Amino acid sequence: MPEDILSLFEADCAADVGRAFVAVASEYMLQTRSRGGRVSTLHTPAGLAARFDEPLPQGSRPVEAIIRRLRSEVISDSNHLYHPHYVGHQVSAPLPIAVWMEAVTAALNQSAAVFEMSPVGTVIEHRVVSWMCELAGFGAEHGAGGTLTTGGTEATFTALLAARAAAVPDAWANGVGSDPPLLLCGEHTHYAVTRAAGELGIGMRNVVPIRSRGYTMDPDALRQAIDSLVHGGGRRIMAVIATAGSTPTGSFDDIAAIATLCEPHGIWLHIDGAHGAAALLSSKHRYRLDGIERAKSVALDPHKMMLMPLQAGMLLMRHEHELQGAFTQRAPYIFHGPDGERTWDQGTRSFLCSRRVDAFKLWVALQRYGADGLGEIYDRLCDIARYMWGAVEDRPDFEPLHEPECNILCFRYLGDGSLGDDALDQLNRDLRDRYNRSGEGWITGTTLDGRRVLRVTIMNPRTSTTDVDDILSGLATIGSGMIKEFS
């Protein structure tokens, strides 16, 4: 390494350099608290691309110059999730303590595939997973365990890989064959399920959607499907996937009823709780997960309702050996445990080899806030969504589409009532875009029952009832000015 580059390397180890970067993050957190400034960028993708259209840097630049660019060109036009008027996608305003831990995690740069590459990180991951298994009712006496993942998509994929190993034991070596088993899931299930079906060789055509009742899986429809497929068609069902906190509406399937239908047939029950399984921490909302202890596997994303920085997913298994059985490859250059014996190495239970120790930030957050504190944050986010539902109900120019079960609410702008459904669809689509471009706030949208609707997700503890009122007023002001365009 050339001497001048080595000098830069050593200089960048100084606390002053670290403080400069921390200052950028801290300033951003504090500035957004004041509710001033834009919530997101006004620029188009092409406009932002032009800003960064520059030759590859060949020489070094001062840290001060990089910090200036971060402030003026990166922070300024990013989505400001800490702003109380950001109520968009399911990405959190992360807990500051977990943000600061990210720098320590990156500095340690442990690879959490095997114990010898991340001794403390491996042990902490096992401990954090064990805590969450206990909350889910997966006791250690039953051999519960699991793994951290990049998110719910990987967690569900890994769970279904374990389910495939149980249903088609030779699939790892020979594939699923010409008669693949079926996956059953609700019609509002996250696309991670159909994606996994394609990735696992099951095929999307072998995913059977079960109709909904009130945006949750209808147990009667599931019963009919199981009877028809198993008894009438002689088909194998690899797994049923229930949802705890669906992406469109935040709705919770009736886990206990679904488990009762699966158990007599020995069907693997997986819970996609990427969003809502954090209710395990809540004394007010834990009941929505009744029956979760009867599932084989549960996906949970701490980077959603537990407010971890991206990325932090988790897979909980009632029987850990079924997860380890999903991965049957040997790699003596990295895995050294005796055959058939449980090891500390998480790489034997994980889709990834290079694995960041995301357990560090989760462990630090639990040390700082405690499980009760994180549960209180969950409750607050849900309470604000429920306040918004009531505020929408009280206004004649808006219509709620459902009563929120967590922190997600879908609603529709009606205006003065003069527009038909088709015009309202286009109005709601355009209203969302114009409101976001205004910089006053940021929301999402979706389609429910064939209608275009507005959608909010409360992911920031700073968002208050006053902010909700401001968001609705801002939407109504812009929407009322658009009515004539659609008449």
What does this structure look like?
The protein is an alpha/beta fold. It has 3 domains: 1-20 and 43-75, no CATH class; 111-356, Aspartate Aminotransferase, domain 2; 371-486, Aspartate Aminotransferase, domain 1 (Alpha-Beta Complex), CATH 3.90.1150.170. The protein contains 15 helices and 13 strands. The strands form 3 sheets. Strands 1-9-8-7-6-2-3 form a 7-stranded mixed sheet, with helices on both faces. Helix 2 runs parallel beside helix 4 and helix 14 (421-438) packs across helix 15. The longest helix has 35 residues, at 359-393. The mean pLDDT is 92.
Which labels suit this protein?
13 strands, Aspartate Aminotransferase, domain 2, single chain, globular, 15 helices, 7-stranded mixed beta sheet, 3 domains, 487 residues, 4-stranded antiparallel beta sheet, alpha/beta, Aspartate Aminotransferase, domain 1
List the helices and strands and how they pair.
Blueprint: H1 3-11, H2 15-33, H3 45-51, H4 63-75, H5 96-108, H6 119-136, E1 145-149, H7 152-167, H8 171-174, E2 182-186, H9 191-199, E3 207-210, E4 212-213, E5 216-217, H10 219-232, E6 237-243, H11 255-262, E7 268-273, E8 297-300, E9 313-317, H12 320-324, H13 359-393, E10 398-400, E11 408-413, H14 421-438, E12 444-448, E13 451-457, H15 465-486
Parallel strand pairs: 2-3, 2-6, 6-7, 7-8
Antiparallel strand pairs: 1-9, 4-5, 8-9, 10-11, 11-13, 12-13
Helix pairs in contact: 2-4, 5-13, 6-13, 7-9, 13-15, 14-15
